[in-house]
What does this fold into?
Amino acid sequence: MNRIFLLNFLLLAGIATQAQQKMEPGGMHYFFNPKPNTIIYHDTIFTGKKQFEQLFYRTGDINLIRLVEKHQSNKIAGQAIGFIGAVAIFAGIRKLSSSDNNKSNGWAMIGGGFAASLASGYLILMGQKNLEMAVILFNRQSHKAALGLGVADKQAGLVFKF
It folds into this structure.
């Protein structure tokens, strides 16, 4: 009975999952990677702060720039707090392992380190959310249909961009 249930569960889980992320042609795509964050735009891979600035700052849109800067600040703060949390956990474990009879400081350091690690994960996820929102906003702004009229020396033309 348990084997049948497990088999059915695995089949249902396999049907609901997707192995690849769908990419619409012509748009910008953000991939959730722990490190580095990756954006694909016009068959070019952009990773890192300098390349993101190159991609988003040239638009001149203050909302896009603000989202990219929030992403960067959340990522840096999350990494710093995560490092402090890891140091606090190791120091707490060392305090617990010592011959000192007062173990409450060690437990407090472990608890504080764990809380800092949770805060770090939250900040990094919010940074990824901000970058994803920037990509969505960029795609919405760059995929608007436009109608233009071009005039040359002895001819005129109508251009529809979609």
About this structure: The mean pLDDT is 81.
